[in-house]
Write a structure and sequence with these properties.
Chain A has 212 residues and is of the alpha+beta class. In chain A, 55% of the residues lie in helices and 10% in strands. Classes of the chains: A alpha+beta (212), B alpha/beta (557).
Chain lengths: 212, 557
C-alpha cells in the first residue's frame, strides 16, 4: 500500500528533530548539532526500543494495582468505602448513567490499556522488522501520543473530589493508593510514547534492511 | 536536481549497528514498579486473616463489601459475601477477618447483627442508623480455632470486661421486663436483665439477670428479688406514698433486690443460685413461714367479703391468713355454716415480741406442745375468739380477728383433729347492721305529722316573740337613744376637762422648770445627803460599836 522509500538514515543524512533541517552528520557516530537551531542531532533516538520497552513494562505492572487498589476512599458518616476504577464504572452503570460510565470506562480503562497494547504492538513490529502497514503504524503512534494526556482525566477527577468533598465529619474523600499507580501508568505510557522513535517504523523493510 | 547533485557528492555514511546492547538505567523503572506492586500484593496477602462463615437467620442490612465485623467498636473484618445456605433456610455470611484478629476466631466466639434497637429502656446501636448495620463480635475463651460460626439472633447481654455475676430468677410471668431492663439495689442501677426463657415445663419464666460488681456481693442466698415495675402507691395514716425505683423502671420495668428485713444467714450467692421473683416488695419481704399451724373456724354468718389471703390478726396485728373459705354442715344440727380455714404463723406472732421474750417465745414457736398450751390458755382462760371484722366499710372486705371476749362461752379445743377448730363469735358488723336497722325502724315509727305540727306551732310563737322583740327595739330606739346621745356628749366634755387637768399636772411635775420638779430635785438631794450621813454613821459604828452605849468620844488627833 505504502512504500517506505528512502530514509534519511539510509541516505546518510540526519533530519533535525527540532527544526527539521536535513543535515549531513559530522560523523556517523557523533552526529553533532544542528547548524540552524543548535539541537542535538540523532539519526535515531538512542536505546529507543529498550527504553520504550522498559517504560511500557513498568506501566503494565502499574496498571494492575491501579485497577485493584482503591482510587478513592469515601468516608460517609464513619463508614469508609473504597472505590476502585472499575467499581466506579459499575456503580455509574448500575445507577443508570451509562454515558458517564462509558466515558470513565474509555478514559480510564480502555485508553491506558489501549496505549499499552499499541506501544507493545509498535515495539514488536519494529523489532521483528515487519514490512508493510507503515502509515497505519505511524498513525497509531500519533494517536497514542495525542491521546496520552487525556487519560489523566481520572486523576483530575480524583484530585477535585478529594479537594472539594471534605465535609468532615459527615463525609470526606481520601485518595487511595490506586490513583498513584494510575497516574504512574499515564505518565509512564506518555514517556514511553515519547521515547519511542517513530522513524524506526520506517527502518524496517527498507532497502537498508534488505542490504543487511 | 540540484539537490540530486548535491546528494551524489555527499560521502556515504554508514550506519554501524550496535552490537552490544547495554542494559539501560531505565529498566529501574519497571523493576521499581514491579517491586512496589509485589510489595503491596505481599503485604495484602500477609495482612489477610482467615475467612470465616457465619450463619444467620436473616441478614438484615448486611451487604457484601460494606458490612464490617466490629469488636469493641474496632473493625476486625469485613463481609465479603452474603449467600443463602444450601437449604435456603438461613443466610451464610462470608467474612474476611483481619490478620491481627485471627486469634479471636475461636470456638465460642459470638457474632450477632447490630442494628438500631429502640426500646423503652433506651436506644442502642444508634450509630448504625447512619453507618448501617454491622456484625458485632464477642471473643470467646476457648483455644480451639474455628472458621464456621452460627450467629446469634439477639445481641449477647454481656460485654467482656464487665465484672459481675449472673443469676437466675424464677417468675410466674415475665411482666413488662425486657432484655436490658434495669436491676436496682437500693434504687441504684446495679445490673440488668440479660435474657429470659420459658422454664422447662412451661409453667414459669426463667429470667437471667446480670448484677455488676460491686453490687453482686450484696446478693446472697436470702436476697429477695421483686418486680420493680410501675408505681407502688400506698395510702397510710401518714398520707399517700408513691414509690418507684426510677422513671425507667416505671415505663420499662425493672427488678429490684435487697436483703430481707428479717434476720437470716448470709451466704454468698453463686451463679447457680436460683431466686424467686416476687410481684412486689411487700411480698418479697414477707418472712418465709417455716412453721405454720392450720385451724378451722365455723361461722354462722355471711362470709361475703372474706377472700382467700385475707389477713388473720391477733389483737390487731398480723398473725396469719385465710387459706380457704367454704361450707360445712354442722354434724349436730345439720345446719349449713361457713367454714374458714386459716393458717397462723407462730414465728411471726412471736417475732413481734421484744427482747428476751423473743428468744423464749421463738423456742415456744418451735415447740408444738408449749404452743398448744399457750393457745389453749388464751382460748379457754382469757376468752380469745375469732371474729369476722370489716376491713373497710366501703369495700366490705372482711378479715378474721382474734380478740378477747371474757364473757364468751367456755370451750375446749380438740387438738387431735388434723385442723383444730377454734371458737368464733359473731362479728360486729352484723350487730352494727342490726342496730342501724332498729334505729331506722324507730325513726320510721315516729309521728312525723305531729312533729311537723308542733314545729310549726313553735315556729309561729317564735315569730311572735321576734315581732315583740322588734317592737321593743324600736321603742328603745326612740326613748333611750336621745338620752344616750346627751350622755355621750357629757362624757366627751368631761374627757376634755380631764385632759386639761392632766396637761396642767404635766406642766407642774414634768417640765424642768416646774416648781414640782424643782422641789423634787431638792428633796432628792436631801435624801442623798441623809444617806451619806447614814453611811458615815454606820462606818463609825462599825469601828466604834461602843459609841452606841457611851456616846461619841472625841477623836484624838
Amino acid at each position: 500500500m505504502s512504500t517506505p522509500g528512502l530514509t534519511a538514515a539510509q541516505a546518510g543524512l540526519i533530519c533535525c528533530e527540532t527544526c527539521e533541517l536535513l543535515t549531513r552528520p559530522e560523523h556517523p557516530e557523533r552526529p553533532g548539532h544542528c547548524p540552524r537551531c543548535g539541537a542535538v542531532l540523532e539519526s535515531r533516538r538512542p536505546h529507543s526500543i529498550q527504553l520504550t520497552w522498559a517504560l511500557v513494562i513498568a506501566a503494565a505492572i502499574c496498571y494492575i494495582p491501579a485497577n485493584l487498589l482503591p482510587v478513592m476512599n469515601t468516608t460517609t458518616l464513619g463508614t469508609t468505602e473504597p472505590d476502585t476504577i472499575m467499581g466506579g464504572v459499575v456503580f455509574l452503570y448500575t445507577s443508570g448513567s451509562w454515558p458517564l460510565a462509558l466515558v470513565v470506562l474509555i478514559a480510564s480503562v480502555m485508553v491506558p490499556i489501549g496505549k499499552l497494547i499499541a506501544l507493545t504492538y509498535l515495539l514488536v513490529t519494529v523489532q521483528r522488522g515487519v514490512k508493510g502497514g507503515f502509515r497505519e503504524r505511524t498513525r497509531l503512534y500519533r494517536m497514542v501520543e495525542i491521546i496520552g494526556r487525556w487519560s489523566m482525566l481520572d486523576v483530575f477527577v480524583d484530585t477535585f473530589t478529594v479537594a472539594l468533598l471534605q465535609l468532615k465529619p459527615l463525609m470526606s474523600v481520601e485518595p487511595g493508593m490506586g490513583v498513584l499507580f494510575f497516574a504512574a501508568v499515564v505518565v509512564l505510557t506518555m514517556l514511553a510514547a515519547e521515547t519511542f522513535d517513530p522513524r524506526l517504523i520506517w527502518d524496517s523493510g527498507t532497502r537498508m534492511e534488505q542490504k543487511k | 536536481m540540484n539537490e540530486n547533485n548535491h546528494h551524489d557528492d555527499l560521502p556515504q555514511a554508514t550506519l554501524v549497528p550496535k552490537k552490544h546492547r547495554r542494559i539501560s538505567v531505565v529498566w529501574i523503572i519497571p523493576i521499581l514498579a514491579a517491586a512496589i506492586a509485589i510489595g503491596i500484593a505481599v503485604q495484602r496477602i500477609l495482612s489477610e486473616g482467615p475467612t470465616i462463615t457465619i450463619v444467620f437467620k436473616a441478614a438484615q442490612g448486611i451487604e457484601a463489601g460494606k458490612t464490617f465485623i466490629k469488636y469493641k467498636d474496632v473493625n476486625i473484618g469485613q463481609v465479603s459475601a452474603v449467600q443463602l445456605t444450601d437449604d435456603f433456610s438461613k443466610v451464610k455470611v462470608t467474612a474476611k477477618i483481619a490478620k491481627n484478629a485471627a486469634g479471636l476466631m475461636v470456638e465460642d466466639a459470638q457474632f450477632w447483627v447490630v442494628e438500631p434497637r429502640i426500646s423503652l429502656s433506651g436506644v442502642s446501636g444508634l450509630g448504625t442508623l447512619l453507618s448501617g448495620n454491622y456484625i458485632g463480635f464477642e471473643a470467646g475463651k476457648s483455644a480451639s480455632k474455628q472458621v464456621a460460626f452460627s450467629g446469634l439472633d439477639e445481641p449477647p447481654p454481656l460485654t467482656e470486661g464487665e465484672s459481675g455475676h449472673k443469676f437466675t430468677l424464677h417468675a410466674t410471668r415475665l411482666g413488662s421486663l425486657g432484655i436490658g431492663a434495669p436491676v436496682y439495689y437500693r434504687s441504684l442501677e446495679a445490673g440488668r436483665v440479660i435474657g429470659y426463657k420459658l422454664a422447662p415445663g412451661g409453667k414459669s419464666v426463667e429470667i437471667d439477670i446480670f448484677v455488676r460488681s460491686p453490687y453482686d456481693k450484696y446478693v446472697n442466698t436470702e436476697t429477695r428479688f421483686w418486680n420493680a415495675s410501675g408505681l407502688d402507691v400506698s395510702v397510710g395514716a401518714s398520707g399517700v406514698n408513691v414509690r418507684t425505683e426510677s422513671l425507667v423502671a416505671l415505663i420499662a420495668g425493672g427488678v429490684a433486690f435487697d436483703d430481707p428485713i428479717f434476720p437470716f444467714d448470709r451466704v454468698q450467692a453463686t451463679a447457680s443460685t436460683v431466686f424467686k421473683l416476687f410481684a412486689d416488695e411487700a411480698s418479697a419481704m414477707k418472712q418465709p413461714e417455716a412453721i405454720a399451724q392450720r385451724y378451722v373456724l365455723y361461722f354462722n354468718e355471711s362470709l361475703r367479703g372474706l377472700s382467700v389471703g385475707a389477713p388473720v390478726t391477733i389483737v390487731g396485728l398480723p398473725g396469719g391468713e385465710v387459706t380457704d373459705v367454704g361450707l360445712d354442715i354442722d354434724p349436730k344440727t345439720k345446719k349449713i355454716r361457713g367454714r374458714v380455714e386459716i393458717v397462723s404463723y407462730p414465728e411471726r406472732i412471736f417475732g413481734q415480741m421484744r427482747g428476751q421474750q423473743t428468744a423464749a417465745d421463738s423456742a415456744m414457736a418451735h415447740n408444738i406442745e408449749r404452743r398448744h398450751e399457750l393457745v389453749r390458755q388464751m382460748i379457754e382462760h382469757f376468752g380469745m375468739r375469732a371474729q369476722l371484722q370489716s376491713g373497710s366499710l366501703l369495700t366490705g372486705q372482711l378479715f378474721v380477728a382474734f380478740d378477747f371476749f371474757p364473757n364468751a362461752k367456755k370451750v375446749k379445743i380438740d387438738w387431735n383433729q388434723e385442723m383444730p377448730e377454734l371458737p368464733a363469735v359473731p362479728g360486729t358488723l352484723p350487730n352494727l347492721e342490726a342496730k342501724v336497722g332498729s334505729i331506722l325502724t324507730k325513726l320510721d315509727n315516729l309521728q312525723w305529722e305531729k312533729i311537723g305540727a308542733n314545729t310549726q306551732k313553735a315556729l309561729e310563737s317564735f315569730t311572735q316573740v321576734m315581732n315583740e322583740a322588734d317592737k321593743a327595739l324600736i321603742r328603745f330606739d326612740s326613748d333611750v337613744t336621745p338620752e344616750l346621745k346627751s350622755a355621750i356628749e357629757e362624757f366627751r366634755r368631761a374627757t376634755v376637762s380631764a385632759n386639761k387637768v392632766i396637761q396642767n399636772t404635766d406642766a407642774t411635775l414634768v417640765s424642768p422648770d416646774a416648781p414640782g420638779q424643782q422641789e423634787l430635785r431638792n428633796a432628792m438631794q436631801e435624801v442623798a445627803r441623809a444617806a451619806r450621813s447614814l453611811r458615815v454613821l454606820t462606818d463609825y459604828l462599825a469601828r466604834h460599836p461602843e459609841a452606841l452605849i457611851r456616846g461619841k468620844t472625841e477623836e484624838k488627833p
